[in-house]
């Protein structure tokens, strides 16, 4: 397996992906290149030298120092010269992501957003505002599984519409019972799960959703200047959970189309899969870890939307998770075939 670095054709400096311009920039002479330019460049490779079971050692293509990387890490920086190093071999075969959402939020913007988010939270230790802590912010591409599904579904039940009126000494109650059927096709997009065991799952799922319509076909160039982790969980692990989530969404989407009536009582629900497409994707996350009294606090920011999820040391005995949202957003298209039946 080889380690690679993108080098500037003008000065030989390392090139990194720039979220602001969405191009590739030389860190030294500031030349800028588009993706086509990058692909045309000869790559600077170096061979892995001494793998062991847990930690693999690689030679930095820039300074020749040995760099240790964990098994799931596919991109990082040389500890000695800070040169970006990508282990392309870890991103091949079944480990090759089909899509990647490039970072949209630059490090400077991420820092600003973190500071303004933190300053809006009360009871935060002053150290949180320290520049040193914020400087430790790192951009990491994390592995996720996402699933798009098309389901056929049918929901049957009844509603009771009750009307009460009074004339002098008599009270009338009119009860209309409707049998309601809804059937149709429901499309769910981007049902997502974190695919890395060691990751802070709550953080990584707390910053969902990502807009995968803005994803690009995978290319190692996007990783340059960032860290990247590869999956160690296969989609089979999530299938039962995704099925349950799908059922919840489909049921509520069909139920929500029943309006203008009293309480709906469902009695039969069927759902069958027409199509499911899974994607293994790398998604951009700004991560900040903060150590206090031996405890580690994690913050994650969606590198596409800026959504933040974090644990704040508000109460030192109890961790409080503060997240924007918990569930993946679902874009649903419903074609309703059934109607109201009396
Ligand atoms: Zn250069
Ligand atoms: Zn180096």
Q: Beta fraction of the residues? A: over 45%
Q: List all distinct small molecules, including ions and cofactors, that are bound in this structure.
A: zinc ion
Order of helices and strands: EEEEHEEEEEEHHEEHEEHEEEEEE
State the share of residues found in helices, binned by percent: 10-25%
Low-confidence stretches: 314-342
Provide the domain count. Answer: 2
Major sheet summary line:
17 strands, mixed
Tell me the number of strands: 20
What is the radius of gyration? 26 Å
Give the CA-based shape: elongated
Question: Count of helical segments?
Answer: 5
Question: Could you explain how this protein is built, in words?
Answer:
With 342 residues, this protein is mainly beta. The chain has two domains: 1-91, no CATH class; 103-218 and 226-342, no CATH class. It has five helices and 20 strands. The strands form two sheets. It has a 17-stranded mixed beta sheet that branches. The protein has a three-stranded antiparallel beta sheet with strand order 2-3-4. Strand 15 and strand 16 form a beta hairpin. The longest helix has 17 residues, at 239-255. The model is unreliable at 314-342 (pLDDT under 50). Residues 8, 10-11, 13, 26, 28-29, 31 line the site of one zinc ion.
């Amino acid at each position: 397996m080889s380690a690679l670095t993108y080098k500037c054709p003008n000065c030989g400096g390392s090139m990194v992906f720039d979220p602001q311009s969405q191009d590739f920039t030389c860190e030294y002479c500031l030349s800028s290149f588009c993706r086509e330019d990058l692909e045309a460049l000869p790559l600077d490779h170096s061979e892995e030298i001494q793998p062991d079971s847990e930690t693999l050692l690689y030679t930095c293509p820039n300074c020749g120092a040995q760099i240790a990387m964990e098994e799931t890490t596919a991109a990082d920086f040389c500890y000695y010269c800070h040169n970006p190093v990508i282990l392309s071999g870890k991103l091949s075969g079944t480990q090759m992501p089909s899509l990647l959402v490039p970072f949209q939020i630059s490090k400077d913007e991420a820092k600003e957003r973190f500071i303004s988010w933190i300053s809006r939270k009360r009871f935060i230790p002053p150290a949180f505002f320290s520049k040193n802590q914020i400087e430790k912010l790192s951009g990491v591409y994390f592995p996720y599984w996402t699933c798009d599904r098309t389901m056929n579904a049918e929901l049957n039940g009844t509603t009771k519409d009750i009307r009460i009126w009074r004339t002098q000494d008599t009270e009338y109650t009119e009860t209309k019972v409707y049998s309601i059927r809804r059937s149709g096709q429901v499309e769910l997009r981007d049902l997502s799960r974190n695919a890395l065991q060691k990751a802070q799952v709550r953080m990584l799922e707390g910053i969902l959703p990502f807009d995968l319509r803005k994803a690009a076909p995978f290319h190692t160039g996007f990783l340059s200047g960032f860290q990247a982790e590869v999956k160690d969980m296969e989609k089979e692990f999530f299938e039962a959970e995704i099925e349950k989530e799908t059922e919840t969404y489909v049921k509520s989407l069909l139920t929500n189309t029943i309006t203008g009536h009293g309480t709906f009582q469902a009695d039969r629900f069927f759902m069958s899969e027409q199509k499911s497409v899974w994607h293994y994707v790398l998604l951009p996350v700004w991560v900040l870890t903060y150590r206090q009294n031996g405890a580690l606090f994690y913050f994650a920011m969606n590198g596409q939307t800026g959504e933040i999820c974090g644990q704040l040391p508000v109460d030192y005995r109890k961790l409080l998770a503060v997240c924007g949202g918990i569930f993946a957003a679902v874009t649903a298209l419903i074609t309703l075939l059934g109607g109201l039946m009396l």
